[in-house]
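SAMPLE LOG
Freezer: B-3
Tube label: C17
Construct: single chain, 228 aa
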Amino acid sequence: MARQNILVVDDEEDILELVKFNLAKEGFQVTCVARGEEALKEARSRPPDLVVLDLMLPGIDGLEVCRTLKRNRETEHIPVVMLTAKGEESDIVAGLELGADDYVTKPFSPKVLIARIRAVLRRRESGPPAEEALLEVHDMVIHPGRHEVLAAGKAVELTHTEFRVLHFLARRPGWVFTRAQILDAARGADIAVTDRAVDVHIVSLRRKLGKHGDCIETVRGVGYRFKE
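STRUCTURE (predicted):
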């Protein structure tokens, strides 16, 4: 069985060496680059199984790298785990909105980083459960197998996380879910993300769905629900 390839992007040589050593010890193949331009070139020529991406990079920064990867059909499927300085919540939220799958704050534990990487890879490999059927509700069609949403017959482009949030809520119209429940369903119970990130995904979903965004209702003091 071929080893999974992880692309690590960071301009700090000691961090590159630390991450490379620990990933290689766990059986991963590791490619390291120090600049955003190099990361994009490498991802296009030899798509990795996952990208570990520092946000503060010379030239093209990490957010722009993430944005470019997710807008390109050839690389949009590649999961991204962001590395960010502690306390940069605005960058974390921006990265998640662009489609990043998780984040790890600096300084970080190599064991925690590897656990997060394995969790993201497991979720991507499992994909949506086969028994989850096509949903038709409020003039919307949600197709889990195709990762496709049609609103009044028009295709709506959503990130991986936005799709899972919408699908989770739409499967149970009228049910109220807390932000923690939504995070567990959309990103996995082993992933720690701020409540603020859930709100960002909901705002983005409503904007992309247009008039159909009204189907996602806020329940003050609790969370969100999909209109019955």
